[in-house]
Amino acid sequence: MGKWKDKARTLVQLAFTALTNGYAAGFAQGRIFRGSSKFVCVPGLSCYSCPGALGACPIGSLQAVITSREHKFTFYIVGFLLLFGALFGRLICGWLCPFGLVQDLLDKIPFRKKLRALPGDRWLRYLKYVILAGFVLVLPLTVLDIVGQGQPWFCKYICPSGTLFAGIPLIASNPPLRAALGWLFTWKTAILIVLIVLSVIVYRPFCRYLCPLGAIYGLFNPAALYRFRIDADRCTQCGACQKACKLDIAVYRTPNSPECIRCGDCKRVCPHDAIGNVNLLRSIPRKRTRGDRMG
Question: How many structural domains comprise the chain?
Fold first, then answer.
């Protein structure tokens, strides 16, 4: 049953990636889709410049607004992030993000010694909040050109998803673009290569340490409509959940950690069926649970 559920998650990830990045003609022709759906945000990272993208990335869209001269705030994108964060938290990272799927597939590659975390993991996890504050918000708003317009710092200088799904396919199918390559593409390709290598060694390094979208959704984990609870009567704190968690979260202590992507591995291995979830359809009775205040 556990393997079936793991395959089910992979199938959902593949289906959602195909749904949001399924414009095959864009990849074939090396052209960006510009239909009306491009004005609609999708929950995960989905680069606007990807030839197959049918929607827009919320982080890229947010930066497009705050770097313009006319607008510095967008009710639509902020409301979109609040809505999906409040409903699902980082379940989106675990089930709907295309770059999360890439990291999951890379993790399946055998390696001599897989790491539970990188050295300095405790502090590195805060880096995504620094990137969110600095590269997504502060720098685009404050570092302006001569006409008063900012740059999308995260998308331009960091985002590996954009490099993989947009930069490389566009360059591969457009010889004039290859002739214009410079240091920036080399820099972003280097970031992508490092993350690909790390993804084979340690689970989801980009999600853990760098992703600003994951940082936003993670803040909602303790209060999202879909969240975990621990049945205090059943839980023996045996640690089986933490051993199964590829992000090394002590689920029995912090079932709603901001790092949790809701993959469900902890629930599948719990020998006492002590991990439940709160959602519209099902919940463990509150009187027998702990976790809301610990999340």
Answer: 2
